[in-house]
Amino acid sequence: MNTLKSLRLLVLLLLFSVSFTQAQQDQKPEEKPSKGWFDKIHLGGYMQVRYNGLLQTNPNLGCAQCDESWGGEENSLSLRRLRFKIYGQIHPRVFFYFQPDFSKSVGESHHVGRLKDAYFDLGLDRDNEFRLRIGQSKVPFGYENLQSSSQRLPLDRDDALNSGLKDERDLGVFFYWANKEKRNLMNELKRDGMKHSGDFGVFALGFYNGQTANHPDKNGEFHVVTRFSLPIAVGSQVIEPGVQAYRGKYVVDKISPELASDLGHEYLDQRAAVSFVLYPKPFGIQAEYMVGQGPEFSHETQKIEVQNLNGGYVTFSYIAGDFIPFSRLQYYDGGKKHELDARSYTVKELELGVEWQPIKAFELVAMYTFSNRRYEDFQLQHNRQEGSLLRIQAQLNF
């Protein structure tokens, strides 16, 4: 009897085992959970610490748009940039980028956080060769304007092209196109330490508010910009010629009370520029020249008027291991619409420097500047300053 019970139990166990095994075989293999959008987010950034007071011959010489800490009797160490970038390809056709900067000054407060970039790219095809960039980002005008300050050799951008786009950014919508081959070439140039400007397409077309980053539109009219820049491999070298232009109406909002100006303080603002880059393999050349019209203080009429402007620069560099010696010549004659009374400028400058990058995370730049600058507004007329100084910058990359 016990034997019969045992046989029955054994048969039941066998049947259960067969049923369980068959059920396991019938189940589909468990799929691995797909990555969430939060797994595709990356963090990075850089910090720059400067000292501008070495061998300074004229404390009255400065450049407000270049570096707030340049000039004055009491030079000290300054945080030029302290930026964190958060970015990621959160969908095959959606890329986002967010970057604040914590080195800005607002009144008496220093190291105040301010938004630099906040945008997303929407791919219009499977390979993202056609895409829309929506939000606050760099305006595609000028090669050096598009270079990250962590990549540029001279410590500040040139006066000519940067005079049209303080902070290089604005709130807008931009269309970019570049085929897969050119996008791969751009990525290779950046990866190989060629100081590339980044992927802003081969062709760009867009509109933006026109009052520059973190400033609201004041006339309800967009600026329009377009750019064509084509990297071309020529043997072992790569060159990149380019053209760009923008047009709009700018509202000058920093005006001396005594100064006469047009009704509404609105002025024509249009510029066109050509660019040429020979990437340093090992010798490099980067040059741009710009012409246009914009608001500028006139000493003769004591008014802000639309006047012609022009200027440009050429930078020479040579990669020698961990060292990159460089020099830049620049010239600019025109107004700076962002400054008081659309301040009038004539700039002639020579810079000689060297960048040392022993490891990827650290860079040191020493640059000697010879400068001759005329900058005049209603409050400060007949003002020309000449001088030279040695400037030092330590940079952390992460």
Mean pLDDT comes to 90
Helix/strand order, N-terminal first? HEEEEEHHEHEEEEEEEEEEE
- Outline type: globular
CATH topology: Porin
CATH architecture: Beta Barrel
Strand order of the largest sheet: 1-2-3-4-5-6-7-8-10-11-12-13-14-15-16-17
According to CATH, what is the class? Mainly Beta
Note the gap between the termini: 79 Å
As for the number of domains, it is 1
Helix content: 10-25%
- Low-pLDDT regions: 1-31
Main pleated sheet: 16 strands, antiparallel, barrel
Task: Spell out the CATH superfamily.
Answer: Porin
β content, as a range?
Answer: over 45%
Overall radius of gyration:
28 Å
Structure characterization notes:
The protein has 398 residues and is mainly beta. It has a single domain, classed as Porin. Helices cover 11% and strands 52% of the residues. It has a 16-stranded antiparallel β-barrel. Residues 1-31 have low confidence and may be disordered.
Brief write-up:
Helices cover 11% and strands 52% of the residues. It has 398 residues and is mainly beta.
Give the SSE map.
Elements: H1 2-26, E1 41-54, E2 78-91, E3 94-106, E4 109-123, E5 130-138, H2 143-146, H3 159-162, E6 169-177, H4 180-191, E7 203-208, E8 223-229, E9 232-234, E10 237-251, E11 266-278, E12 283-298, E13 303-318, E14 323-335, E15 344-359, E16 362-376, E17 384-397
Antiparallel strand pairs: 1-2, 1-17, 2-3, 3-4, 4-5, 5-6, 6-7, 7-8, 8-10, 9-10, 10-11, 11-12, 12-13, 13-14, 14-15, 15-16, 16-17
